[in-house]
């Protein structure tokens, strides 16, 4: 009888100089880990190498000895630096053979677009002898699977839409066949603003008894901290109890619970957008130092934004500027952060309606940050201010990085 | 006599659930590869694992057998999911010992900030017995180095500013001591817009004889394609000759040569900003579908932007809207892309001065893209239009994705 291993090792192997040298961000890696996690499958590791044939061959050999399943991404294009199929063949001492079936698909693909197939694309129909083709209904790079050193390798295209479709439709079902039934994972998340990661962690470690098998993780994207508890489905009642305790600890800084959009980069904007729609309020936005980030996040969250302005210079009379734009555009609320002063990190948050203009002189007292981070912090303060305004809460919440001036 | 290996293997080991599961982007990895490349040192691979003690121990063992130098990043913080020092000690069968020297630094760090050191930070002064401390003058996580299986391991903090400073000041000099003198690399780059990667690659492969040791790489960030030739310093004359030939092939689509900013994400905006300053022209920007991306890129490139507006709704009379803003703000040029229609991907590019309003009805004819990519494409078309306007070139260049309407 076969020996069932307690943990299947699945690695993603990302290929390409532009990924190794960080010229592009490996969004496929992020997506894959998250997608498989939701399906109860845990990626154990990720490995990245460049476009070098001998390195690729060595890596396929070595990583196939270390893993049960290897998902290889990239290197299936038509150009001379796309080497995955060739490396796979050489790693297994095989030759490349022409897959007539895929060649026909390629010719059809170009015909449908009113073009002849460029000769360079023939390469995309050449697969290692032992490989089985995996269909790509939306692109020219087919995938394939094969065994090397008893590890199951899936080769996938680098284009994100093609990669995702192939993983969902073709590869996930195969992985499930090879993956033992496991206790599926529960994952609870919440998002806070205004405290540091170590400060939160220390309070939680000190007060709570965290059961074994349950892990608490933190993710900081200044000034937002996401807190996550992960544990087995079988410990749901312990998880629920712990989660209530955690929520009471973070209560003053809680922005929202759960995940609001795929990568959760602008969850706060989604919360604000929903509040604006629910309360039937429209906004105009005025930005300076944040250079459009508040507007971009709210627009992407489909908030009722009537108009947005970026005014690079300091405003002499901000209150009347806000009120004027509010009237001109017939909006309910004007919101913005303006007049940021480099020398002392002071700035003004304004939330204006036709009835009143709320005006806060604030000072950022956290450690110095990159300009981009500083912009993210200002945008988050504005969005949180608007959230609090809409919820009838004090506009400035508990926040270790902010001092209220005057 | 020692046997000198022809290639030193250097791997970066990124740790952390949030990196493995793609919740944060591994910007340290991108930065490190690029920084070392500029110094003539090539990272051979990158490996990523999560915050699991036994996986970390196994990985340190295994990767130290495969490499000469391992740069480990992350897991040095004060919280319970920071496990790097503990894993390093266990991988080498050592215990953790308190470094009094670093404990004093920590106490000083907190004292200077008017706080007592939280107890959880003591952990950051516990290092494996054989480790040598590496100073971190700006944070609480010291680095350290040690040998495992004859591989030299450097442990570094995850906070980007601390990581970069430690690599530059402490680790680079040590790597150089361990790295054989190599022929340093030449890397030429140029950036194009309006052709696809495979189209460019096919023409170049067909026309040019690429010498061995010289590699041509492509990086596509829709709609921008960067082309890069890399080869040894000793082949400079072949490189120069090849580069001239490549430039004559891409000429109609060339945006600029070289690297304009660190990650080159908005090189085009930097080109436009420089032209605006050189010609003493100021701009106002009006955006709709691009939701502020044109403005953000130009502002970040320090362009003379007087004001920027994002108008979510279609404009009835765009010409007069642009002219009005131009006059009100006393700018020289009003630029923007507006009235994007989802149903047919048509939109209008306007470049207006007080003398004339240039008005182009365009249609995007590339394949369908994510909304973010679509926004990037529109922003690039606007920026390239402005660049061409400032250079007295036809506003719409050779572009396989664009059709001029009417």
Summarize the structure in short:
Chains A, B: This is Competence/damage-inducible protein A. Chain A has about 400 residues and is an alpha/beta fold. Chain A has 12 helices and 18 strands.
Explained architecture:
The structure is a homodimer of 406-residue chains. Chain A folds into 3 domains: 10-178, MoaB/Mog-like domain (Molybdenum Cofactor Biosythetic Enzyme, Chain A, 3-Layer(aba) Sandwich), CATH 3.40.980; 185-257, Alpha-Beta Plaits; 267-404, Alpha-Beta Complex (Maf protein). Helix content of chain A is 36%, strand content 26%. The first copy, chain A, is built from 12 helices and 18 strands. Chain A has helices at residues 17-20, 27-38, 53-66, 84-91, 100-112, 160-178, 197-207, 236-250, 267-278, 293-300, 318-329, 371-390; strands at 10-15, 45-49, 69-73, 96-98, 126-128, 132-134, 143-148, 151-156, 185-193, 215-221, 224-232, 254-257, 283-287, 305-310, 333-341, 346-352, 357-364, 402-404. In chain A, the strands form 4 sheets. In chain A, strands 2-1-3-8-7-6 form a 6-stranded mixed β-sheet, with helices on both faces. A 6-stranded mixed β-sheet of chain A has the order 14-13-15-16-17-18, with helices on both faces. In chain A, strands 10-11-9-12 form a 4-stranded antiparallel β-sheet, sandwiched between helices. The longest helix of chain A is centred in the C-terminal third of the chain and has 20 residues, at 371-390. Chain A is globular, with a radius of gyration of 26 Å. At the A-B interface, helix 1, helix 2, strand 2, helix 3 and helix 7 of A face helix 1, helix 2, strand 2, helix 3 and helix 7 of B.
């Amino acid at each position: 009888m076969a020996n069932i291993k307690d943990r299947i090792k699945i690695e993603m192997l990302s290929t390409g100089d532009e990924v190794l040298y960080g010229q592009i961000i490996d969004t496929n890696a992020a997506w894959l880990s998250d997608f498989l996690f939701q399906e109860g499958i845990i990626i154990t590791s990720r490995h990245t190498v460049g476009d070098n044939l001998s390195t690729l061959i060595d890596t396929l050999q070595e990583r196939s000895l270390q893993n049960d399943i290897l998902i290889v991404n990239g290197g299936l294009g038509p150009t001379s630096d796309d080497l995955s199929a060739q490396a796979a063949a050489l790693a297994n001492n095989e030759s490349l053979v022409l897959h007539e079936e895929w060649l026909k698909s390629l010719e059809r693909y170009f015909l449908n677009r009113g073009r002849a197939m460029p000769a360079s694309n023939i390469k995309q129909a050449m697969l290692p002898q032992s490989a089985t083709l995996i269909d790509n209904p939306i692109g020219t790079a087919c995938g394939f699977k094969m065994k090397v050193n008893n590890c199951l390798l899936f080769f996938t295209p680098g284009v994100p839409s093609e990669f995702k479709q192939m993983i969902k439709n073709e590869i996930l079902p195969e992985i499930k066949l090879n993956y033992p039934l496991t206790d599926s994972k529960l994952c609870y998340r919440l998002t806070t603003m205004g405290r540091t990661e170590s400060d939160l962690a220390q309070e939680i470690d000190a007060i709570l008894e965290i059961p074994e098998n349950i892990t608490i993780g933190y993710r900081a994207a200044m000034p937002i901290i996401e807190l996550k508890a992960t544990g087995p489905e079988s410990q749901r009642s312990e998880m629920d109890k712990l989660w209530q305790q955690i929520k009471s600890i973070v209560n003053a800084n809680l922005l929202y619970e759960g995940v609001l959009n795929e990568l959760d980069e602008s969850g706060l904007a989604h919360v604000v957008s929903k509040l604006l729609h629910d309360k039937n309020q429209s906004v105009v936005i005025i930005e300076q130092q944040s250079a459009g980030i508040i507007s971009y996040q709210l627009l992407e969250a489909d908030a009722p934004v009537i108009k947005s302005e970026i005014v690079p210079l300091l405003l002499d009379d901000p209150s009347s500027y806000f009120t004027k734009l509010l009237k001109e555009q017939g909006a309910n609320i004007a919101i913005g952060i303006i007049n940021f002063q480099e020398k002392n990190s002071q700035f003004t948050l304004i939330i204006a309606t036709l009835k009143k203009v709320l005006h806060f002189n604030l000072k950022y007292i956290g450690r110095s940050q990159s300009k981009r981070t500083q912009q993210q912090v200002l945008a988050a303060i504005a969005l949180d201010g608007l959230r609090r305004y809409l919820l009838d809460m004090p506009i400035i919440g508990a926040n270790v990085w902010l001092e209220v001036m005057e």
